[in-house]
Amino acid sequence: MSSLYDSINETTPAALPQQCKHITKRGNQCPRSAAPEEEYCILHGASIERTKEYIQRRLMALQEKSVAVIEEIFDSGEDKVRLAAATVILDRTGLGPKSTISLDTSADFSKMTNEQLAAELDTLAKQAREEVKRQRMDEALMQTPSASASRH
Q: How many angstroms separate the CA atoms of 87 and 106, rounded?
């Protein structure tokens, strides 16, 4: 059975990062790796935007394979580490779960007393805290399989 790592290597170029071409004041070449598709590291002039675009293109190329991994795991019920990796890729490419907060705009706040406004704000703050807590729990659950796999 091939791993997700093998799938990534099949999908993306296998070129190793090149060394930054910047020459220091002492005449030595910068020891850092050049940014993807760049000749220089971020410190010496590589474009952060181009680097982000390059990474986004690589992740987008992995979407289809990630969906296939999820389908395979869904049927087998095993290999949680691969599922977590595929899910991370989907999250990073905009296909992950979304959080939305809806507000009821039908309330007429101009007719509310200060106490009513304070109570409404307390309710909204409580809902927001609960949503943040749910998101953190979801993130912790996604990280758990990876953490246990790294211990083995």
A: 37
